[in-house]
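Possible race condition, two jobs.
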Amino acid sequence: MKSRGKGISLKLPSSESGFSMLEVIVAILTITAFLTGTLQLMAFTALYKVRATRQTQANFWIQEDFESVKALASTLDVSSSPDYVSSDVCTDGYATALRRELTETPLSEITIPTEQLVVVEIPGQETPDEFKKFVGKNYSLYRTFNITNQANHPHRLRIDYRVEATDETPKDYPNQEDVIAESSVEVIPDASFKCR
């Protein structure tokens, strides 16, 4: 009598048979779609983080310049030196005198510029720059003096600020605009309150 040993079966029961080819392909496609979406979101997040950083720095630059203009306006007086204030400043308006001082336009000149590029003073550098670098890109700050209603309000100077890209390629992303920050402020020199 021959003893029959148990033979080893090469087939596994169906509950432990593993994944079919279709299941593997679906899993790979699902993982690929998830990774692609995640990477795109990471790229957009990085783009908007850079953009937000630039806008924050630009707004801070505007605020910094406005503070220096307010400090200048608080010290502006008939006895200011150099002489940008005329003797009839109460009639002509302190706004005109402040605009003369900001643009360094002497009293002998009749025309005062209505727009000015703000230069950046860098300690230890002889010539100031006309731009600041925010996250690897150059931007310039412009002051525009809005004088349309100055005849009605001779002591109030309205300044419109804008920070715009000055690189040779101002648009590094198709959806990014040249001007990244704008603000409007009004300044009234302290000495104007002495006028009657």
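Job #2 (started ~2 s after job #1):
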Amino acid sequence: MRIAVFVAGQGRQVGMLSPDGLRVTPFDVPAEVARRGALPLVEAASRGEPLPALASSSFAVADVRLEAPLPLPRRNLWCVGRNYHAHAQELAGSVFKNNAADTMEWPIVFSKVPECVVGPADTVQLPAAAISQQIDYEAELAVVIGMGGKNISREAAMSHVYGYTIVNDVTARDVQMRHQQWDMGKS
């Protein structure tokens, strides 16, 4: 199942994509619920509730404006840096080159502020040239956590995952390296 947040006609809607990805059928939810994107669906699933009913009509994806699936996150987005070996090797000579910590055992965790979320057709607001001269971007996999927890076992971890999406991770590398803190350069 693929969920999409989109604008068609009168405001934001949340719906399900057809298997071929060419059409989207909105869920039958009030506008106030749809305003929050897919977040109400994630919250309902964490309570064991089913998906809302689908509307009787659908839209061609080519005729709608796709938006971020979670346009209004409740809090910061938590991210893991140097999250695969080849990327960690690539960064070894630049960002945090003096950090000898084993990132497999001690992952680098940082956050992005909710206000940095934009949709696929939205303009990314970059810092002024006086602040950053080195903007970088990477495609990343985002894991949407549907059910909270603490000290979750490896075996139970996937039961807490609601779904996946993709993220354009935009970074002001020079800002990030000035203080060796990732949050400012990543938000």
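The longest helix spans residues 39-46.
Logs attached separately.
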